[in-house]
Amino acid sequence: MNPFQYTRVTTPKAAVSALSQESGTYFLAGGTNLIDLIKREVVVPERLVDINKLPLATIEKTATGLRIGAMAKNSAVAEHELVKKHFPLLSMALNAGASAQLRNMATVGGNMMQRTRCPYFYDTSMPCNKRSPVQAGPDKGKPNGPSGCGAIDGYNRMHAIFGGSTKCIAVHPSDMCIALVALDATVNVSGPKGDRKIPFSDFHRLPGDTPQKDNTLLPGELIMSVDIPTNKFADNSHYLKVRDRASYAFALISVGVAVDMKRDVIQDIRLAMGGVAHKPWRLTEAEQFLRGKSATEANFKQAATIAMNGAKGYGENDFKLTLAPNSIIDALKTATKTA
Amino acid sequence: MTKDLKNPPIDRIDGRMKVTGGAQYFADFELPNMAYCVIVGSEIGRGTIASIDTKKAQGAPGVLGVFTHQNMPPIPGWDAPVGGEADGPAPKPDTKEKYRILHTPKILFDGQPIAMVVADSYERATYAASLVKATYAKQAARTDLEKHLAEGIAPGRPGSSDYLRGKADGYQSAPVTLEANYTIPVEVHNPMELHGILAHWTGADSLMIYAKTQGVNATQNAMAEAFKIDPKKIHVHTEFMGGGFGMGLRTWPQETAVVAIAKKIGRPLKLVVTRNQMFTLVGHRPYTVQTINMGADTNGKLIGIAHAATAETASYEDFTEATVNMTKFMYECPNVSTRYRIVRLDRSVPIWMRGPGEATGAFALESAMDEMAHKLGLDPIEFRLRNYTETDPEHNRPYSSKNLKEAYQRGAEAIGWNKRQNQPASQREGDWLIGYGMSTGTFNAFRWEASARALLNADGSLTIQSAVTDIGPGTGTALTMIAHNVLGVPLNRIKVAYGDTSLPKAPTQGGSAIVSAVGSAVYDACTKIKNQLVELAIKDGSPLAGRQADELTLTDGVLFVEKEPEKKIVVSELMWTNNLTVVDKSADSKGGPELGKYSMYSFSVHFVQVRVNPLTGVVRVSKAVSVADSGRIISPKTAASQMIGGVAGGIGMALTEEAVIDHRFGRFVNNNLADYHVAVHADVPAIETIMIDKPDPIINPMGAKGMGEIALIGFAGAVANAVFNATGQRVRDLPITPDKLLRTV
Ligand SMILES: Cc1cc2nc3c(=O)[nH]c(=O)nc-3n(C[C@H](O)[C@H](O)[C@H](O)COP(=O)(O)OP(=O)(O)OC[C@H]3O[C@@H](n4cnc5c(N)ncnc54)[C@H](O)[C@@H]3O)c2cc1C
Ligand code: SF4
C-alpha cells in the first residue's frame, strides 16, 4: 500500500479532468473491487477520484429504450420496475451476481470495469501479465510482482475457453455484462476529447499481447450511462448461472438467453455466455442458426455445437467444453419454456 | 436424574446477548495504551530468508517495533514446542525439523510469519507491514501429497498403529469384492471470527490474556510453559467465540510471539489475523487419500475390510487423527485391517476440524458400504443391518448404549426412504434427477475430568461456575438445564459463569465431550448442595424431621415429601434457620473404572435427497434428515442447532469446500471467503433433526453423550451416495463440484 490522495468530484467534467491530469489516478465508485485491489497492492494508486456524488444514478425511459446511469447501484437496477418488466434478463443476471450487500454498493460502471478474478492476478508474489505487463523491469517488478501467466499451466479451472492468448486466459467475471451484451446495449462515455458511444460488444476486448487492457475505454474517459434498446424478449428470457455453490460464487459458465417466440418458432434471439472469455461472449452464429427455427432440443443441440466452434481447454477448465454447450441447451429450454 | 429429566426446549441463554452485541469476543476488548500487531507472511513454501528490509516499516508513522528473526525477544520455553504437539508428545527419537516462530531465517511453509509489525493503530500496523520486504533463497516446496504418497511414515503414536483382526487380506477371497480410492482435499475451518489474541502483562510475571481459544486452561498452561511462569499468574479469558470448529484447540506460535512482544514493548498488544492468514496460521483438515478393500458374500455378510489412509502433515510436527478407527468397530466383520500413514510436507501443520479424522474416514467407509450394497443388489440400510453388531468387535466388549437400528428406521421414515429406487438414475422431476442416500456416523463418547462449582444463594438464585469456553454449541445452556434438573431452581434464576481461568478447571471444548465432562461436574456439585439441604431438612427441629432423605423432592425452592405435599419446607427458610447465606459446593468429576468395561460411542445417521441436473452437473441437497443417538438430550433446542450446523458443514464438505494449492508455488490460490466456498443459505435446505433421546446408563449421571462431531461425521458420504443413486456416477473425490459429474459422463 502507498499513501494516496483522495478527491471528491460532483460533475462529470471535473471527474474527467481530474482523471486525465496524472497517471495512477482511479475513479472510485462502490469500491467493492477497487479497494480490494488496493489492499492487495495489485493497484497502487496515486490518487482516487470519488465519483459517488456524480448525478449519474438515474434509470429512465428514452425514446428508443432505457437509459441506466453509470452510478446506479446494481441492486437498484435489478429491482427497477421498468427493468424487471421490459428487460428481465438484466434483472436476473444482476441478481445472480455477488451478494445482496455487494449489489447494494456496486455500480453499473464499476461492474463493467471490474477486473478479472484470476487468483494469480490478485497475488503479487505470483506471475501475471495482466497485473505486471511483460515490460516491467527489475525495479518495476515490485510491488506488482512477476510477469508471466500463472494460469495457463496452473489452476485455470475458472478460465477462458474462447479468445485466450498465450499471454492471458482470464475471464471477465461480470454477470450483468452478459445481459447487456445480449441486449445490444450501448455505452455512453465522456472523455477529455468529448463524448462518444461504444457498442457494448466492443467495450471489452480480448487479451492478445496486451492483457493489461480489459476494455477499449481511453485514458481519462468516464462511463456516463448505458442504453438498452426496446425489444420483444421480455416473455422468454433466462439467465442460467452454473457455479460451485448456489449463491455468492462466480460463474463457471453462465448463459443469457432472450427470445422472441411466435408459437414454437424463434423469431429473434440473443445469446451470450459468461465465464468463457476475456469479454462477455456473444454467440452470434448460434443466434443466426436459431432464427426462424422451431424450439426443439435438436435445434438447441446444433446451436450449442455451433457456439462451441473454436473453444479450447487448458487442463483444469476442460470440463467447460462439455458444460458450456450443455448450459446453452439447458438455458434455451428454460427460456423457450420447452423444458 | 436420568429417569425424570425434564428438558423443555429453552432458548440459548446467551442468544440475546449475541444478537444485540452484548457478547464480548476477544477482539472486542480494548485496553488503555494498547498496541496492534500485524503479521507479514513468507511468500515461499520452503527456503531461507536471504534478506529482510524493515527500515521503511520502522520509520512509518506510529510504528513501535518490527520484529523478525533478527531481533525477536527470546521465549524462555522455546526448546519444547509450546503446548507440545497438538496430539501429544512426539515419539523419540524426534528427528523432525523445528519450527520456532521468528527465531530462524528458515522457511518451512508458505505464509510462515517472517515479521510482526507493531504500531499504535491497526491501520498503521497494516500499512507498515506492507513496507517490509524480504528476499529468499528459494527451495522447491513439497506440497502435493499425491506426489509423495510413497513417503508415508507410521506416526508411532498410541492409537495410530496398524490394526488387524483376522486376516489382513481376508477380503480377497470373498465372492464379491471392491477396491476404491477416496480423497478429501484441504479444508479450512473458516469460522466467521478471525483468530488472534490480546496480551497484557499486568506485572513482571503476571499476564492477562484475551484469546480465541477452545480451552482457557490449555492456553494458560501453554503460556506458563513458554514463559516459565506460574500458571496461577496467568489469567485467560474467552467467554465467547465466533466459531472454532477445532482451530482453537491449541495455542498457536503467533500467540506466544504476541505475548513475548507485548512484554518487550511494555504495552498491551492485540493481534487479529487476516482472512488469508486463516489458511496458514491456524491449521486445516489435512488432505487425505484413502483406499478401501472390501469383500462380502452373496448374502450380504461382510468378510473383510482393509482401510488405509495417508494424510499430510508438516515437516515440523506429526499431526495425526483417527481416520481409520470407525472401520475397526462399526460392522461385524471377521477380517479387518487398518493402516494410517502421514507424509511430512512443506505445509503448515493441520489441526482437527469438526468431526476430525472420523469424518474423513466415514466418507470412505460409508461410500464403500454403499458401493458394496449396490454390487450386492441390496438396499444400503438392509446391507448395514445384515452386518450390524450389538457389541464392539474391536475390543470385544459391549457398547455402553447403541440405538442405531432405531435411528436407521426413524430417519428412513422421515426422508421417505421407501420412495428410493435401488436402481440408480431412475427417478426424475422435470429435467432433474432425484436420488436418496444415507450414511452412518460415529464418534467416541468421552468422559473427561472436569471441575465445577455451584452456589445456591439465599434469594433462591443459583450460580454455576466452570472455566469451560462455550464455542457456540450451547454449553452454558446445557449446564443451566442440568443444574435446573438437580436443584429445581427456575431456569431464569440460574446464572452460568464460564470461559475464564478464575473459574474451576475444565477441559478444552472439543471432542464433543463437554456436556459429559463439565455437565457431570455441575451435576455433582448441585447434588452436593441438594444433599446438604436434605440433611438439614430432616434434622431434629425441622418440619420434616425424621423423614428419609430419599422421600424428599426439591422443586422451585421447596423441599417436600412427594406423597404428602403439605409436608414441606421452603429452602430459603431452611437456609435462614441454619444461618446460611449461600450453599457453596465444588466438585471434581471423572468417570469410574467401570467405564472401562464398555465401548462408549455416539452414533448418527444422515439421510439426504439430492437433485442433480444432468446437463450442468449441479447438485442440490433438497432434503436432509439427521438422527442423533447420543444418549439423553439435555437441551433440545441447542442440540438441534448443533445437528443443523453439522449438516451445513457437511454440505460444504460434500459439495463446495476445497482449499486449492498451486504446487508450483506451494501457495493457496483461493484463500479468501469469495473463492473458498463455505456453504451459504441457498445451499442448505430445511433440515429435520431427530433425537433418539435414550439415556446411556453408563457414561455419566445424566446419561448424555456428545453430539458435536456426529452431526458432521458421515454426512458427506450420504450426499455422495445420494448422487450415485440419482445419477449412477460415483464421485470419490470431494467436493462433488459440477465438473466432476461432467467429467465422468
Ligand atoms: C466477494 C465478491 C463476489 C462477487 N461476485 C460477483 C458475481 O458473482 N458476479 C458479478 O458480476 N460480480 C461479482 N462481484 C463483483 C462486483 O460486481 C464488482 O465488484 C462491482 O460491480 C464493482 O462495482 P463498484 O461500483 O464497486 O466498482 P469500484 O470497485 O468502485 O470500481 C471498479 C473499477 O471501475 C472503475 N470505474 C467505476 N465507475 C466508473 C465509471 N463510471 N467510469 C469509468 N470507470 C469506472 C474504477 O476506477 C475501478 O477501476 C463480486 C465482488 C466481490 C468482492
Ligand atoms: S490468466 Fe491473465 S490474469 Fe490470470 S495469470 Fe494469466 S495473465 Fe494474469
Explained architecture:
The complex is a heterodimer of chains A (339) and B (745). By secondary structure, chain A is an alpha+beta fold. Among the domains of chain A are: 5-53, Uridine Diphospho-n-acetylenolpyruvylglucosamine Reductase, domain 2, CATH 3.30.43; 237-335, CO dehydrogenase flavoprotein, C-terminal domain (Enolase-like, domain 1, 2-Layer Sandwich), CATH 3.30.390. In chain A, 30% of the residues lie in helices and 20% in strands. Chain A has a five-stranded antiparallel sheet with strand order 4-5-8-6-7. In chain A, strands 9-10-11-12 form a four-stranded antiparallel sheet, sandwiched between helices. Chain A has a three-stranded parallel sheet with strand order 1-3-2, covered by helices on one side. In chain A, α13 crosses α14 (320-335). The N and C termini of chain A lie far apart (51 Å). With 745 residues, chain B is of the alpha+beta class. In chain B, 23% of the residues lie in helices and 26% in strands. In chain B, α7 (356-376) packs across α8 (380-386), α7 runs parallel beside α14 and α13 (636-656) packs across α14. The longest helix of chain B has 24 residues, at 514-537. The chains are: A alpha+beta (339), B alpha+beta (745). At the A-B interface, α14 of A face α15 of B. Bound molecules: flavin-adenine dinucleotide and iron/sulfur cluster. Residues 26-34, 70, 74, 97-98, 102, 105-107, 109-111, 113-114, 173-176, 222-223, 250 of chain A line the site of flavin-adenine dinucleotide (FAD).
